[in-house]
Structure prediction request, 465 residues.
Amino acid sequence: MRRSIIIAILFIFAPCSLVYPLAEDQTNNTAAAKSTTLPPQVIPVGQSGAWNLLFADEFNGTTLDTGKWVTCYWWDNDGCNIASNNELQWYQPDDVIVNNGTLELRAQQRSIDAADGNSYNYTSGMVTTGRNISDISAPAKFTFAFGYAEIRAKVPKGQGLWPAFWLLPIDHNSKPEIDVMEILGHETDTIHFNFHYLNSEGVYENQNRDWIGPDFSDGWHTYGVDWQPDKIVWYVDGIEHFRYTETAYIPNGPMYLLANLAVGGDWPGDPDGSTPFPSYYEIDYMRVWQRSNQVYLLPIADTYTDSDSPSTNYGEDKTIQADHEPIKTTYLKFDTTGLDGMRVASIQLRVKSILESGAGSPDTQYVKLVNDSKWQEDNVTFNNAPTVSSTTVGAISNTLPNTAYTIPLDSSLLKPKIGTIFSLAIEGTGTDGLYLSSKENEFDKPYLVITLLSSTVMFLPIIIK
Prediction:
């Protein structure tokens, strides 16, 4: 679908660095993600309120925007597939076609001797905003943490065809995985919604729902997921059809977009003589928004200190810890200067325990204000640690490994700090310590969720050169 160019987009009145749409190593992509031609009133189908557009591709033109997309998984070897699914296609970039407003992922019946040493009878197309190399230090094209992802698409019909739109974590793990939609070509009236994750014991679990609707191969439909700290909600054409609310396992780190057309595999089965080739998974657009009244704020510094090693600096550790015997204290520093003058409705601290036996704790850990925020992550030790005040702003107890927790903070005590750089500490009260992921962890970073009163949200035009 062709669209006219508009020169303004929705923007929250706060620096983009405060909002958490990207992993830390991907800030160079912020401008590309903001460079959109959509007018500010374009919001997710069926939703209301103010939204901040993070990413969009309308697929205008005749070539794929390689600043936004790669055409294989991170194990790209002149093509790729997921062998563990026993898929029959070998993804190829020439099966990714941009045709003046539509992205076409094409499945073909053709023989190819692939670089993995196998021969395939089918090729197909896929796109992701992740990486096509294994180096996780390399920037992805686009990632986000929390938001509304939406696709408008027309799926193909045919035995063995398997179109999907989904999200994966940027650390190259396969879990958690949010499947916004999956449709099998032999039953194109049924949508499969799935959430795959590991529980507190590291055991795979899946929450899912199937919904029977119209024949989705007959026309265009929108498929969306609203991923928030307290819920994941699946939509078709703006109507809710599935909801997951177990906050302990809702992902809290950056994820990227994928759209692909698989051929064959254990689930859809093999193509047969009735399967049309070539077949096309047609995509009108893909977009990602965040609500304009919520800010997801990473710490600018975090570390912990240990009385057993009083002169050791733990600033680059992937864990932060709280204990009482020995004394271990976590320090978190946040920069809220970009929110100066804004009215705050609520503040929450989101943390996740690591996947390791003993990472949780039955003891209570208190979140407290720190008197001095001049400390630097790379030189804090137990011997020179900043003083923790007696002011408690939140608490957590009875925690499990590999589990996310949202800690409501006393906003009456923290509102005077908004607009400044301030620090929090997590201190234990018992003999069993709590082990959390730090900001150095690729996926499960700690962060604040700051909800602003709606009257503080403004709309600013941005001129597109």
In short: The radius of gyration is 23 Å.
